[in-house]
Amino acid sequence: MSMATLTIDELKSQARRLREAMASGGTAVTHGTALELVAKSHGVRDWNTLSALAARRDNAEVDPVAVGAVVSGEYLGQRFRGRVLALSRLSQSSYYTITLHFDEPVDVVTFDSFSAFRQRVTATIDGKGISPRHTSDGRSHLVLDL
């Protein structure tokens, strides 16, 4: 398995196996030393560099939700439950465009004398399912319960 496909957990497992193998051969090493040796075996300077590369790959490869998934959360401060109709990663970005269809329409207006219901919405979210855009009171437009 190449470093390009290894996760942080797999790299830590390599370090554990290396430590065990060295100990069985009579050479005791600390876990930290084993992590540094694993990093060098993958051609990088140190464990911090290797783990940062693996974390970036881990986060970049996993979409926050799948198309067709049933999700819940808040849209403009109102609770919802709905289905993901579309999800696409914005090019060269860590953000996604998501289209949701709510089970029940959500009133997106907070005034008592006026209502505006939405049942299908499109928004931008990050990898944690949170919109970078905020309302005037500082709440994210969309927050998925992930």
Automatic annotation (TrEMBL):
Domain Glyoxalase-related protein, first and last residues per copy: 2-145
Record's protein name: Glyoxalase-related protein domain-containing protein
Source organism (scientific name): Ciceribacter naphthalenivorans
The organism's taxonomic lineage, starting at the top: Bacteria, Pseudomonadati, Pseudomonadota, Alphaproteobacteria, Hyphomicrobiales
